[in-house]
Amino acid sequence: MERSADKFRINPRKAWYRNVAEITTNGDYEVTFHLKRPQPDLIALLASGQSPVYPCHVTPAQMRQHPIGTGPFKFVEYKPNERIRVMRNPNYWKPRRPYLDAIETTIITNTATRDLNFIAGKFDLVWMSMPRLKEVLAQAPQSLCDSVMDNNSRDLIINRSAPPFDNAELRRAMALSLDHQAFIDIMAEGQGAVGGSILPPPDGVWGMPPEVLRGLPGYGPGVATNRAEARDVIQKLGYGPEKRLAVKVSTRNVDEYRNAAIIAISQLREIYIDGELEPIDTATWFPRVMRKDYAVGATVSEGGLDEPDQKFYETYVCGAERNYTGYCDPETDKLIDAQSMEANPDRRRQLVWEIERRLAEDASRPILLYSRFPTCHQPYVKGLTIMTNSRFNGWRMEDVWLDK
Q1: Measured over all CA atoms, what is the biggest interatomic distance in the chain, rounded to whole angstroms?
Q2: Are 251 and 157 in contact (CB under 8 A)?
Q3: Burial 98-132 (b: 16+ CB within 10 A, else e)
């Protein structure tokens, strides 16, 4: 199989395939992945909706403007801040699919405007946050909505290389200040979960159950007790009521990001840390956090599926592009490789929990919450199946049809 001569500007999921030594083909319909070591769950990464196969004869620059592929729909146009349009692929490999002739996605940055268009019947399908669901159902009771757990946690990110946040005790105090349930109640109407770096059960397969999670820093025994301990720690570092620590809390200028940052700022005040919100445009946000140009921030863990290999290699191993905090521990990297090779689910789960414990103790990326997110559609939309623990899989739309 060819390797493209062109490089991606940013390739955050390159870390998923660090174990792939070579890929070879045998004719047009057979491909072999040659691995450096065993990796039983590589097939899950390949099946993810975030694993597109790029053609080597088309440059990344061309793909950004006019992507091609073998999926059920063909790209037609993208108009920034207006719409994306695709049409049925007549050469799709699955007979009599897809049913739809075309799909048009309208880009509306204001959530209220987007929801009102759905309520008015102008859109067939819409995504939203839990606080918006009640209002939408009140005004459009005929809507059919599925609310499923998202495996992308909301995280506080702390730049370990930016003083004074290079101090592990300060980071621990910040983690102890967090009230996870308050995040869930405010941002998800109570429809969420407290978890570590991996999605917890019952929605997740690999994450820690509550009785194990409570043993991690910042997860028990209670918010008041944790904050009292945090204040003791931060006062020993020279801060307190008369000498508060000022910091900018950076985040992507999108509703859900801003909301998480605002709540985090209010909670950090309880331990003498005064945060100032710094909203950053989306086009600038990712390059900034990748080059560690921030002190404290609020972000989303960009998870493609409920799979530890995806989360650990993309977010936590040394040098990964989405390792925004700069966390790097060779022993943790060895454990990540060990869990990746382990075929026995129970033994693998124990390794995953040990990694989660190490990450929580470092406290450079405290997890704020996991949230459910609704997808609502009009009653005439048929054949739509929503994935149970990832919003970014299952969107081939090949089985969807309109009963009208």
Answers
A1: 72
A2: no
A3: bebeebeeeebeebeebbbebbeeebbbbebbbeb
9 token code pair = 């500007």
pLDDT tens digits, residue range 191-226?
A: 999 999 999 999 999 999 999 999 998 898 799 999
CB burial string 289-305: b at 16+ within 10 A, e below? beebebbbbbbbbbbbb
pLDDT tier at 377 (50, 70, 90 boundaries)?
Answer: very high
* Pair of tokens at residue 28: 């047009």
Q: Which architecture characterizes domain 154-371 according to CATH?
A: Roll (3.10)
In terms of C-beta density within 10 A (0-12 exposed, 13-18 middle, 19 or more buried), how is residue 193 classed?
buried
The DSSP bridge partners found for residue 376 are 126, 145
Token pair belonging to 340: 């990746």
pLDDT of residue 54: 81
The tokens 């993810």 sit on which residue? Answer: 48
> CA–CA separation, 325 vs 292, rounded Å?
7
Q: State how far the Cα of 387 lies from the Cα of 307, in Å rounded to an integer.
A: 14
Q: 239-274 burial, b if ≥16 CB within 10 A, otherwise e?
A: beeeeebebebbbbebbbbebbbbbbbebbebbbbe
Cα–Cα distance, 140 to 367 (Å, whole number): 34
Percent of the chain with pLDDT over 90: 81
Antiparallel, parallel or unpaired: β 273-280 and 296-300:
unpaired
**How many Å apart are CA 46 and CA 33, to the nearest integer?**
11
